[in-house]
Design a protein that fits this description.
30% of the residues lie in helices and 26% in strands. It has helices at residues 14-24, 64-80, 109-120, 149-159, 175-185, 227-238, 257-263, 292-304, and strands at 5-9, 31-35, 41-45, 53-57, 85-90, 124-128, 143-146, 165-169, 189-196, 202-208, 215-223, 243-251, 268-272, 286-289.
């Protein structure tokens, strides 16, 4: 059956795509991405995809616009090459944060990019831990929305004593996500009363829940500049937390994140490889888990027509 399966890697995360293909026991299909002298992107599919089931892996990471455009051109090239079905595999969909009109005269860009993917040639989308569940509804093609919560929870179960641990949401908006994480581990949860001042600044309030003398794990969908995480750590320390850990699906770690997290009074930070983390961003507190087996299993189930949801039952 895998003779009909093709998996291509755009340029955002080659290592993850190689892991996926190793798990599926197939090679990464060749794709040439280059630029013309006027800086226009040029994509050529270098494998026969006629009547094949095709998957293209691309996370929306820096440079985000280049990676989105690269994916759009690749999808169009595959459609033109008569692929039977094309699935855009987007482990990290960064525009999921642009999910509502919270200021005058702005774009709901999460929906715009979803429309662009369909127009470019995506027949379906496979993604992971969207920032807001409603973004799933922006797509007019089928979407398989995976979660790395079981992967991260399994790490904490294996490496920590859960008897004194509390899961913490950095704000009320993340309570549902942290609720699923705490339920998976069988531990209580707490919430920080947070007010966002700007895109990069937040004002922390009180802790709702018991954290004094407890080992706490802050759980988020992503860590970008680290500002929210650091201010949450400060709030928890002031509330008497004994030790602090953090887990997040997407380790974006942009701007001053590494400098902030190195200096922060936190014991460990666990993320996954939905975002490629270069060697210079690795440090002793950071653990990167792989989601390649989960994505490979989902791809295999989509290809064979089996239930993807059964992976989490």
């Amino acid at each position: 059956m895998n003779d009909e399966l093709r998996v291509f890697a755009c340029n955002s995360n080659h290592a993850l795509t190689r892991e996926i293909c190793d798990t599926l026991a197939i090679p990464v299909s060749p794709l040439e991405v280059s630029r013309f002298s006027n800086d226009n992107l040029h994509v050529q599919v270098q494998a026969n995809v006629r009547e094949r089931d095709v998957f293209v892996v691309q996370s929306f990471t820096e440079p985000v616009s280049d990676h989105i455009m690269e994916l759009m051109i690749t999808l169009d090239a595959l459609r033109s090459a008569s692929a039977r079905r094309v699935t855009a595999v987007i482990p990290y969909y960064s525009y999921a944060r642009s999910d509502k009109k919270d200021a005058p005269r702005i774009s709901i860009t999460g929906r715009l990019v979803a429309d662009m993917l369909r127009t470019a040639g995506a027949d379906r989308v496979l993604t992971m831990d969207l920032h807001a569940d409603q973004v799933h509804g922006f797509f007019s093609v089928p979407v398989d929305h995976l979660t790395a919560i079981p992967t991260i929870a399994a790490h904490f179960r294996a490496h920590h004593d859960l008897g004194n641990m509390v899961a913490v949401a950095t704000d009320a908006g993340g309570a549902k996500r942290v609720g699923r994480f705490s339920e998976r581990l069988g531990i209580p949860m707490a919430i920080i009363d947070k007010r966002r001042v700007s895109d990069t600044q937040v004002k922390q309030g009180q802790v709702v829940g018991e954290v004094a003398g407890r080992d706490v794990v802050i759980f988020e969908d992503e860590i970008s500049t680290g500002g929210t995480l650091v201010s949450t750590i400060e709030t928890l320390k002031a509330a008497g937390a004994r030790s602090i850990h953090a887990g997040a699906v997407h380790g974006v770690l942009c701007g001053p994140a590494i400098e902030r997290l190195r200096a922060a009074p936190i014991e460990s930070i666990v993320v996954t490889n939905t975002v490629s983390i270069p060697p210079e961003k690795h440090f002793d507190k950071l653990t990167v888990l792989t989601v390649a087996p989960l994505l490979a299993a989902a791809i295999e189930r989509i290809h064979s027509g089996e239930s993807v949801g059964a992976l989490f039952e």
